Please model this.
Amino acid sequence: QVQVVESGGGLVQPGGSLRLSCAISGAIYTVNAMGWYRQSPGQQRELVAQIITDPNGDSPNYADSVKGRFTISRDAPKNTVYLQMNSLKPEDTAVYYCNAEVMITDTGEGGPTLYKYRELWGQGTLVTVSS
Model:
């Protein structure tokens, strides 16, 4: 069993800040990537920020629209990713979804441990930027 729990959305005025959190729990063997997508009405879901894990150091990527304003970070031991959102604009209003690419473990009773690739999605948290 794996769980994805995200939080931190809410209503904020333009120029304000919010921090989103996403925690993954369960039989996670490795985390290949964690990030945030967003979707507003009538729009396709788009990548906001993502961390690609690497033994030599995590590599963050950002959409051009949020560069310099948003910061993604990860607490690896907790399998938690954060999105610090500063200088928020009305166009940032959307439902934000946590995403993770992981390998999960599945150990049967007295059997071998199986490793399976899974793409995980959070339930979404609404961010509204409005005065």
Q: What stands out?
A: The mean pLDDT is 94.
